[in-house]
TrEMBL record:
Organism in which the protein naturally occurs: Kumtagia ephedrae
Protein name per Swiss-Prot or TrEMBL: Uncharacterized protein
Superkingdom assignment: Bacteria
């Protein structure tokens, strides 16, 4: 099966917490890697998201450690929607 990873940036204007995070993260811009697999639907090609990773800390923030935390793409989308409604 063919897979790919795409990189995006998620912008949070308020602190947020996702399942799997040890503590709430401050507002900021976060790099997100999304893993997708190729599927064929009615002779067309499409990509299905199968995983996502958020890079911590936020872009431009200093930290002693850098990590990629796996997140459920649905949880990430819900947190982004909630953040947009709050701002």
């Amino acid at each position: 099966m063919t897979t790919r990873t795409t990189q995006t940036v998620a912008r949070f204007s308020s602190p947020f917490l996702l399942p799997g995070f040890a503590a709430p993260q401050p507002a900021g811009h976060y790099r997100v890697d999304q893993d997708e697999e190729l599927i064929e639907v009615f002779s067309r090609l499409a990509w299905r998201r199968v995983g996502a990773f958020v890079h911590l800390p936020a872009i431009g923030m200093n930290g002693q450690t850098h990590q990629m935390v796996p997140v459920n793409p649905t949880d990430l989308n819900a947190a982004l929607e909630k953040d947009q409604k709050q701002s």
